[in-house]
Write a structure and sequence with these properties.
The complex is a heterodimer of chains A (806) and B (287). By secondary structure, chain A is of the alpha+beta class. Chain A contains 19 helices and 34 strands. Chain B is globular. The chains are: A alpha+beta (806), B alpha+beta (287). The complex binds flavin-adenine dinucleotide.
C-alpha cells in the first residue's frame, strides 16, 4: 500500500453516510435566498385570485352580487358556488369522508369561510374587487362551545346532512354529531375501575391551535386547453395524493395532471389537505385559459385552512394503592369545526389516538371518541404529529401526573413502576397496537441523572416552604413527560388514504461515472430529505452522499408516494430507499463478481465496494461498478444500474423519549421562566444527528408555544380573536428556551435500517412536559389540573383561584 | 392584507407637506415610518387616498440640546434615539423605553413622531412624554403651536392634531441630575404591545421622595398620568404600605379593555404591579 491509499476511516468519512453530521445541502440555496417557492413562480399572463370571506360564524347567504366588483379595472371574474355547480365542484370530498363547501352554498358555517373567488390581473385589483362584492347575510345563532353541540336545541349546522343517520364512520347520534369511535374492552375496563383502590377522573382539554408554517398555503394552476392538461404548483405535503384527488373530482385523466411541490416553507400538517383555494384556482384557470395564482395571507391561514387539536378528553385511570395502573378509560369530545376535514388515514376517524395507553402496561383500557360539528374552521390536522398522537400523549402524561399526585407518589417513580419492560416487546397494547421496541426505564433514568432530578425536587421543596413563609412570590415546577409515539403510517393492512395504501417509494438511478439520482415519494418541507436520503444511500451502496441528487415533489418524475407528515418519511420512504439501494447492491455484486472473475458468494461488502473474501487486495469499487454497468455487464444481464422500491411497512414504529422541564412562575404576574429543558429522544438508528437535533429544537419550540399560549380562540359569537401573529403566540428567539438534547438508541427490529422517525417527537413529548411543569408548580397549593394554554394571565388566574392573593 | 389604491407624495419641506395635507383634506395622511399606518392600510382599516411621505424633509430630523430642553425631530427613528449619546445621557428613561418597543427591524423604521402622533393607546412613548412633561410642536396652515403631551390625547386614535397639521418636533425638559427613572413593561413577547406598562421619574431628598411623575401605557383609551399615585409617594421612603397605596391609586384610574393579553381584572392587577416595580427600580437608581 502506498501512502496515498485512503484509510478505512477516510473512505468511510468520504461517504458522509448514516451517523454523519452532514451539513444540509438544501441550505446552500435557502441561506442565499435562492429557494424556489410557489410564490416565486411567475407565468406569462398569470392571474391572481382571492377570496371574499364571511364575517359571520353562522349565517344564511341571501345573495351575492359581483356586478360592482366586475367594474374594478383588472377584475375578470367573480366565482361563486353557483359557478362551481356548473362543473359540479361547489362541494368537495374531505380526506375524512365528509364533504366540504368550496364556496358558500346557501349558508356560511364559520368566520372567514370562503364565499366568492375574485380573479384579476393582479393581486391589488383582486383585493379591490373583493371589497366591491356585496353579500347579503342573515345571521343565525352560532354554535361555539363543543359541549353544547349535542344539546337537543342546538342549532342545526349541516343542513346538507339532514336525515342522514349514518356518516363515513358509522351511526350519527345527533344533527351535529359526526361519528363515534370506540376501541377496547368496555366490560373488562369497567370491572377494573370497580375493583380499583384508587381512581382519578379529569377533563383534560387540548385547546385548538394551528400549525402556522412560515409560508402559507398557496398554488398556481395552469390549464392548457389544447393539450387538456392541468399543471398545479402548490404547497403540497403529499403531491401524488393531490393528483389523484384532482383526477377523481375534476374528471381529468390522471396522466394529464402535473402536480409539482417546489420548495416548501414548513408544513406541519397544514399542507396535507385540499383547500377551496386550490379548487377555485384550478376552475378559474380552466374558465379563463390563463394560469391563476392563489396565495393565502397570514390571517386567512390562521382562520381558514385547517386547525389542530381541539380535543376534550375525560380521562380516568384505575390503580392499586401501590401505584400499579389497572385500567384506563377515556372519552373524547372532538371538535372538528364545520366540516370533518381531518387528515387521518381513512379508517381512523380519531387518528391513532388509541396510543393513549402510552408507555405504560395497562392490562385493560377503553376509549370512545365523539366527533362533532361547531361553527369553527374545519380541519383537525396533525400539527407535527402522527394523527392525534399529540393529544393522546398529553392525555396520558397529564393523567399519570394527576394519579401520582393523588397517590402521593413522585411522578417519575410512578412512571418507572408502570413502564412496559424491555422483555415485553413486541408488546400488544390493550387498545390494539404492537409496539416494536423500547427500553423505557433506561431512558428515564438517564434523564433523571442528567438533570439531577432528586436535587431539583429538593430545591422545589425548599422553595415551597419559602413561599409558604411569604419569603418569595415564585413557585417552581418540574414537568416530566415520557412519551411513546406511533409513527410511520403505515401498513396497508390498516392504513390508506382514499383507498390508496400508505406505502412509500424510491427510485435510484446510478450514472456511469458513479453519481446518481434518487427520486422519492415523500416531500420535504424543511426536514432536510435532500441531505438525509443521500446519506442512507451512501451507507447502503458506498457512493458518497455528495454524489447523489435527491429529488422529490414532481409527480411526473417521482414514484407514487403518500407524502411527508406523521413522521412517516424515514419509517416508510427511508425503508424504500434502503430497499431500492439493496436491489442495486445485489446487481452490483453480480457485476463485480463477473469483473473480478469470482463467484458472487466469494465477495463481501467493504464500505464503498466489494472485495474478494480472503483477498483484501482484490476489490472493485462501487464507482467502477457503475461504469461497468454501462459497458460490460455479465452475458444475459440488462445494462444499467437502477432500481425502484415500493415499501409497505410490516408495522408502525414507536419512538419514545424522556423530557423534563424546570420552570419558575411569578404568581403576581403569571410570568414564567423556563429554567431548563432537557429532551432525551430514542428514534432508533440515527441517520444525521445534526438534523435530529434541529428537528428536536424546532418541535420543542412549537411545543413551548402551544403549551404556553398558542391558541386559536373564538369569542361567543364565533369571531376568531387570535387571528394574527400579534395575538397567536409565535415565540421569537428571545422567548425560546435553551434546549438540551440527549439520546438513547433502540433500533426498530422490523425497519431495514432500524430507524423510527423523530420529526414529531418533540412536539408530542414537549407539550406535556411544559404543562406538567405548570401543574406541578401549582399542585402544592391544592390544584389537580389547570387547562392549557398556560399564558401569563391564566397562570395569574390559577394563582388567584388557589387563594394566593387572599 | 393588500392596501387600497393611494397616491404618493414626497415633499422636501414642512411648508410643502403642510400645503399638500391641507389642500388634499381628510383623505391625506402623513407617512412616517409606516409601522403603524401601513399595517392598518393592509387591513383596510385605514384607506387614505394620499400619502405624504415625510422622509424627504430634512427639517424633521435631528436631536439637539437647547439649554435645559432636548428637542427631537419628528422623523428621528427609535433606532436613532437608541444610538444618541445625548439621549442616553440626559434622558436615560427614553433610551430604556425605546429598547422595549418592538424589535430592531421595526425600530429602524418607526419614528418618535409617528409613535406619539398615532394616538394608539398601545404606543409606549405617549405616556412617557406625559411623565417627562414634554410638549409637541404642531405646524399647520395657520402657523405653529405647542401642545403639552398631557393635553394632546383625547381618545383612541383621537388627538389634538387638526386636519392638515404636522407634528414637527418634541421638546422634553431634562430631568434633574441624579433623578431616578424606570419604565416597566409587561408584554407577552418581543414585538408585543404592553399588557400594562408604567413610567416613573422621581427625585429624592434625605431618603424621601421629593418629586414624582407616573405615566401609564395601554391601560385606558389614552395614556394616563397617575397623579394621585404620584402624590401618595411624595414625602415617603417608599415603604411597603406606601407602595400599596400608590398602586391602588393608579389602578383606580385604569380602564383597560379585555383582549388576548388578558381580562380587565388581570390587566389592572399587573398595571398596579408595574407601578410598584417602576417606583422601586426608579428609587434604586437615584444617585
Ligand atoms: C410588530 C410591531 C410591534 C410594535 N410594538 C410597539 C410597541 O410595543 N410599542 C410602541 O410604542 N410601538 C410599537 N409599534 C409601533 C411602532 O413603534 C411604530 O413605528 C410607531 O407607532 C409609529 O411610528 P411610524 O413612524 O411607523 O408612524 P406611521 O405608521 O408612519 O404613522 C402613524 C400615524 O401617525 C401619523 N403621523 C406620523 N408622523 C406624523 C407627524 N410627524 N405628524 C402628524 N402625524 C404623523 C400617520 O399619519 C399615522 O396616522 C410596533 C409596530 C410593529 C410593526
Amino acid at each position: 500500500m502506498n501512502d496515498m491509499t485512503p484509510t478505512r476511516e477516510q473512505r468511510e468519512a468520504k461517504l458522509e453516510g448514516m451517523g454523519c453530521k452532514r451539513k444540509r445541502v438544501e441550505d446552500i440555496r435557502f441561506t442565499q435566498g435562492k429557494g424556489n417557492y410557489v410564490d416565486d413562480l411567475k407565468l406569462p399572463g398569470m392571474l391572481h385570485g382571492d377570496f371574499v370571506r364571511s364575517p359571520h360564524a353562522h349565517a344564511r347567504v341571501k345573495s351575492i352580487n359581483g356586478d360592482e366588483a366586475l367594474k374594478v379595472p383588472g377584475v375578470l371574474a367573480v366565482i361563486t358556488a353557483e359557478t362551481l355547480k356548473t362543473v359540479n365542484l361547489a362541494w368537495m370530498p374531505t380526506l375524512a369522508g365528509d364533504v366540504q363547501m368550496v364556496l358558500a352554498d346557501g349558508k356560511v358555517l364559520f368566520q372567514n369561510q370562503e364565499v366568492a373567488f375574485v380573479v384579476a390581473t393582479d393581486r391589488y385589483a383582486a383585493d379591490d374587487g373583493i371589497n366591491k362584492v356585496v353579500v347579503e347575510y342573515e345571521p343565525l345563532p352560532p354554535l361555539i362551545d363543543p359541549f353544547k353541540a349535542m344539546d337537543k336545541d342546538a342549532p342545526v349546522l349541516r343542513e346538507d346532512l339532514a336525515g342522514k343517520t349514518t356518516g363515513a364512520h358509522g351511526p350519527r347520534k345527533h344533527h351535529n354529531h359526526i361519528f363515534e369511535w370506540t376501541v377496547g374492552d368496555k366490560d373488562l375496563t369497567d370491572a377494573a375501575f370497580r375493583k380499583a383502590d384508587v381512581t382519578i377522573k379529569e377533563m383534560i382539554s387540548y385547546h385548538r391551535t394551528h400549525p402556522s408554517p412560515l409560508e402559507t398555503c398557496q398554488c398556481v394552476c395552469s390549464f392548457d386547453k389544447i393539450k387538456g392538461e392541468l399543471s398545479i404548483w402548490g404547497t403540497f405535503q403529499a403531491p401524488h395524493v393531490i393528483r389523484t384527488v384532482v383526477a377523481l373530482i375534476a374528471k381529468i385523466p390522471e396522466h394529464k395532471i402535473h402536480v409539482i411541490s417546489p420548495d416548501i416553507g414548513g408544513g406541519f400538517g397544514n399542507k396535507v389537505g385540499a383547500y377551496p383555494g386550490y379548487i377555485c384556482a384550478a376552475v378559474a384557470s380552466i374558465v379563463t385559459g390563463k394560469p391563476v395564482k392563489w396565495v393565502e395571507d397570514r390571517i386567512e391561514n390562521l382562520t381558514a385552512t385547517s386547525f389542530a387539536r381541539d380535543y376534550h378528553m375525560t380521562t380516568e385511570i384505575a390503580s392499586t394503592r401501590e401505584g400499579k395502573v389497572t385500567g384506563l378509560r377515556v372519552h373524547v369530545l372532538a371538535d372538528h369545526g364545520a366540516f370533518d376535514a381531518c387528515a387521518d388515514p381513512s379508517k381512523w376517524p380519531a387518528g391513532f389516538f388509541n396510543i393513549v395507553t402510552g408507555s405504560y402496561d395497562f392490562p385493560t383500557a377503553h376509549l370512545s371518541v365523539d366527533g362533532i360539528y361547531t361553527n369553527k374552521a374545519p380541519g383537525g390536522v396533525a400539527y407535527r404529529c402522527s394523527f392525534r398522537v399529540t393529544e393522546a400523549a398529553y392525555c396520558i402524561e397529564r393523567g399519570m401526573d394527576i394519579l401520582a399526585q393523588k397517590l402521593g407518589m413522585d411522578p417519575a417513580e410512578l412512571r418507572l413502576k408502570n413502564f412496559i419492560k424491555p422483555e415485553q416487546f413486541p408488546y400488544h397494547s390493550a387498545l390494539g397496537w404492537e409496539y416494536d421496541s423500547g427500553d423505557y426505564a433506561t431512558a428515564m433514568r438517564k434523564m433523571m441523572e442528567s438533570v439531577d432530578y432528586a436535587g431539583l425536587r429538593k430545591e422545589q421543596a425548599e422553595k415551597r416552604a419559602a413561599f409558604k413563609r411569604g419569603e418569595t412570590r415564585e413557585i417552581m415546577g418540574l414537568g416530566v413527560s415520557f412519551f411513546t409515539e406511533i409513527v410511520g403510517a403505515g401498513p396497508s393492512k390498516n392504513c390508506d388514504i382514499l383507498g390508496i395504501a400508505m406505502f412509500d417509494s424510491c427510485e435510484i438511478r446510478l450514472h456511469p461515472t458513479g453519481a446518481g439520482i434518487a427520486r422519492v415519494g415523500t416531500k420535504s418541507q424543511g426536514q432536510g430529505h435532500e441531505t438525509t436520503w443521500a446519506q442512507i444511500i451512501a451507507t447502503e451502496i458506498g457512493i458518497p452522499a455528495d454524489d447523489i441528487m435527491v429529488e422529490e415533489g414532481n409527480t411526473d418524475t417521482a414514484p407514487y408516494g403518500l407524502g411527508t407528515y406523521g413522521s412517516r418519511s424515514t419509517p416508510v420512504a427511508g425503508a424504500a430507499i434502503a430497499m431500492a439501494a439493496r436491489k442495486i447492491k445485489a446487481k452490483a455484486q453480480m457485476i463485480a463478481a463477473y469483473k473480478l472473475e469470482v463467484h458472487e458468494d466469494d465477495l463481501e461488502w467493504d464500505i464503498d465496494g466489494f472485495r474478494v473474501k480472503g483477498l483484501p487486495e482484490k476489490t472493485m469499487s462501487m464507482k467502477d461498478i457503475c461504469w461497468a454497468a454501462y459497458n460490460s455487464v455479465p452475458p444475459g444481464m440488462e445494462p444499467g444500474l437502477e432500481a425502484v422500491s415500493y415499501y409497505d411497512p410490516p408495522n408502525m414504529t414507536y419512538p419514545f423519549g424522556a423530557y423534563i422541564c424546570v420552570m419558575n412562575i411569578d404568581v403576581d404576574t403569571g410570568v414564567y421562566k423556563i429554567r431548563r429543558f432537557y429532551a432525551l429522544d430514542d428514534c432508533g438508528t440515527r441517520i444525521n444527528p445534526m438534523i435530529i437535533e434541529g428537528q428536536v429544537h424546532g418541535g420543542l419550540t412549537e411545543a413551548f408555544a402551544i403549551a404556553m399560549g398558542q391558541e386559536i380562540r373564538y369569542d361567543d359569537d364565533g369571531n376568531v380573536v387570535t387571528g394574527s401573529f400579534m395575538d397567536f403566540f409565535m415565540p421569537t428567539a428571545v422567548e425560546t428556551p435553551h434546549w438540551e438534547t440527549d439520546f438513547t438508541v433502540t433500533p426498530s427490529p422490523h425497519h431495514p435500517i432500524g430507524a423510527k422517525g423523530v420529526g414529531e417527537s418533540p412536539n408530542v413529548g414537549g407539550v406535556p412536559a411544559f404543562s406538567n411543569a405548570v401543574n406541578d408548580a401549582f399542585s402544592f397549593l391544592g390544584s389537580t389540573h389547570i387547562q392549557m394554554p398556560h399564558d401569563f394571565w391564566r397562570n395569574w388566574k390559577a394563582a388567584k383561584n388557589l387563594g394566593v392573593f387572599a | 392584507m393588500i392596501p387600497g389604491p393611494f397616491s404618493y407624495h414626497r415633499p422636501a419641506t414642512v411648508a410643502d407637506a403642510v400645503k399638500l395635507l391641507s389642500t388634499m383634506g381628510d383623505e391625506a395622511r402623513p407617512l412616517a415610518g409606516g409601522h403603524s399606518l401601513v399595517p392598518m392600510m393592509k387591513l383596510r382599516l385605514a384607506t387614505p387616498e394620499h400619502l405624504v411621505d415625510l422622509h424627504g424633509i430634512d427639517g424633521l430630523k435631528g436631536i439637539r440640546r437647547d439649554g435645559n430642553t432636548v428637542v427631537i425631530g419628528a422623523m428621528i427613528t427609535l433606532h436613532q434615539l437608541l444610538a444618541s449619546d445625548e439621549i442616553a445621557k440626559s434622558l436615560p428613561i427614553l433610551h430604556e423605553t425605546a429598547l422595549l418597543i418592538a424589535d430592531p427591524q421595526v425600530r429602524y423604521r418607526g419614528t418618535i413622531g409617528g409613535n406619539v402622533a398615532n394616538g394608539d393607546p398601545g404606543n409606549d412613548m405617549p405616556a412617557l412624554m406625559m411623565t417627562l412633561g414634554a410638549s409637541y410642536r404642531l405646524e399647520g396652515k395657520s402657523g405653529a403651536r405647542d401642545v403639552a403631551a398631557s393635553e394632546f390625547y383625547q381618545g383612541a386614535y383621537f388627538t389634538a392634531l387638526e386636519p392638515g397639521e404636522l407634528l414637527t418636533a418634541i421638546s422634553i425638559p431634562v430631568p434633574a441630575a441624579g433623578h431616578g427613572y424606570a419604565y416597566e413593561k409587561l408584554k407577552r413577547k418581543v414585538g408585543d404591545y404592553a399588557t400594562a406598562a408604567a413610567a416613573v421619574v422621581l427625585t429624592m431628598a434625605g431618603g424621601k421622595v421629593a418629586t414624582c411623575k407616573i405615566g401609564l401605557t395601554n391601560l385606558s383609551e389614552t395614556p394616563l398620568l397617575a397623579e394621585d399615585a404620584a402624590k401618595a409617594v411624595i414625602g415617603t421612603s417608599l415603604d411597603a404600605a406606601t407602595l400599596k397605596k400608590a398602586a391602588a391609586a393608579a389602578v383606580a384610574i385604569m380602564a383597560p379593555a379585555a383582549d388576548a393579553r388578558g381580562p380587565v381584572e388581570y390587566r389592572k392587577h399587573v398595571g398596579g404591579i408595574m407601578v410598584t416595580r417602576a417606583l422601586q427600580r426608579a428609587a434604586g437608581r437615584v444617585g
